[in-house]
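Lecture notes, part 5. Sequence design as translation. It can be helpful to think of inverse folding as translation between two languages: the language of shapes and the language of residues. The source text, in structure tokens, appears below.
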């Protein structure tokens, strides 16, 4: 396992074992990260089945399910790693951004667990954890790099000079890419979660069957907008229904064409971001980062220009406790104890303090 402290911070800190807690939305994640041995254990409970009947996440139900799942998941992770609370050096938890009720569950649990064990509690920025997730891999990226953070709630391009040294280059003006996937999946009468279902349907379709816009790519800048693309799909779907041509083949072609439009838009913006920042390394993280077409397209485009793309493994693209434990360990090593309970529905990456190299 690569030692991120040695590679990225340039010094050997005391050995630290950190428990990570993730409850920002509809997945309960718990993990143990050791600064010398790496990731020891991790568990994830998804609430997909709970929310499927509603076609999306119900915040109150998400919060209640986190309450039910946290204690058994923590007990399982600690037992499987052969660890006791006294072996820990800190407890890290997602403090935001996210659903405020879900965040409060994780924050209060982590703070209480830490207080009972006499440990510091470390609030972690959810998107910082995502952009640091590739550090869990055997060949992590070196700083600096550009990060594309692309998920259901966020689409960001960030210039990353170091831990906490972030400059947001572009963000979404309306729907995030993952949200556009989910909403388009509803238009195509697919199940929940919509993004993976749409990608699976797209595998059987023709990406050239429909011509959908590549939003904001014909003008300068690095911001995103996916609401117009979603509307274009809606207009075309209505036309096909009225013409009696709304069948499985048409839906597959529409899924493939929509996916191609999103992917091409992201590729164009990433190319611009790398040129703007003068970087050769691109990190892609967040749930949409697991999309096969996006991965292949970004690797081909960046490699052709002499750069390299880094991804977390697919299980760490979606929300997880491993990335929270890692980010918490990186911050605990230098900052020590933090305010006990922090929960923020909105939180800019640029507000985070830098961790000195």
């Amino acid at each position: 396992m690569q030692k991120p402290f040695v590679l990225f911070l340039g010094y050997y800190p005391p050995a630290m074992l950190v428990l990570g807690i993730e409850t920002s939305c509809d997945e309960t994640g718990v993990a143990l990260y050791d600064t010398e041995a790496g990731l020891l254990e991790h568990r994830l409970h998804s609430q997909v089945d709970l929310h499927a009947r509603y076609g999306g996440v119900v915040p109150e139900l998400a919060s209640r399910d986190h309450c039910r799942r946290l204690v058994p998941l923590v007990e399982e992770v600690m037992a499987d790693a052969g660890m006791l609370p006294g072996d820990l050096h800190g407890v890290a938890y997602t403090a935001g951004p996210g659903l405020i009720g879900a965040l409060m569950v994780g924050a209060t649990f982590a703070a209480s667990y830490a207080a009972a064990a006499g440990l510091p509690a470390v609030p972690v920025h959810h998107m910082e954890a995502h952009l640091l997730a590739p550090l869990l891999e055997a060949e992590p990226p070196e700083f600096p790099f550009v990060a594309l953070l692309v998920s259901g709630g966020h689409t960001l391009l960030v210039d990353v000079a170091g831990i906490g040294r972030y400059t947001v280059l572009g963000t979404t003006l309306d729907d995030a890419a993952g949200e556009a996937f989910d909403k388009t999946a509803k238009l195509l009468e697919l199940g929940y979660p919509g993004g993976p279902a749409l990608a699976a349907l797209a595998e059987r379709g023709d990406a050239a069957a429909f011509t959908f816009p590549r939003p904001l790519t014909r003008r300068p800048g690095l911001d995103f907008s996916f609401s117009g693309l979603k509307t274009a799909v809606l207009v075309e779907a209505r036309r096909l229904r009225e013409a009696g041509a709304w069948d499985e083949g048409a839906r597959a072609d529409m899924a493939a064409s929509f996916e191609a439009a999103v992917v091409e838009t992201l590729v164009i913006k990433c190319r611009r971001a790398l040129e703007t920042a003068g970087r050769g390394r691109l990190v892609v993280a967040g749930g949409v980062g697991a999309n096969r077409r996006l991965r292949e397209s970004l690797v081909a485009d960046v490699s052709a220009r002499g750069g390299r793309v880094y991804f977390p493994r697919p299980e760490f693209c979606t929300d997880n406790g491993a990335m929270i434990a890692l980010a918490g360990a990186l911050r605990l090593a230098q900052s020590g104890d933090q305010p006990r309970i922090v929960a923020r529905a909105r939180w800019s990456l640029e507000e985070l303090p830098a961790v000195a190299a």
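The translated text above is only one of many valid answers, since several sequences can fold into similar shapes. The two ends are 21 Å apart (CA to CA).
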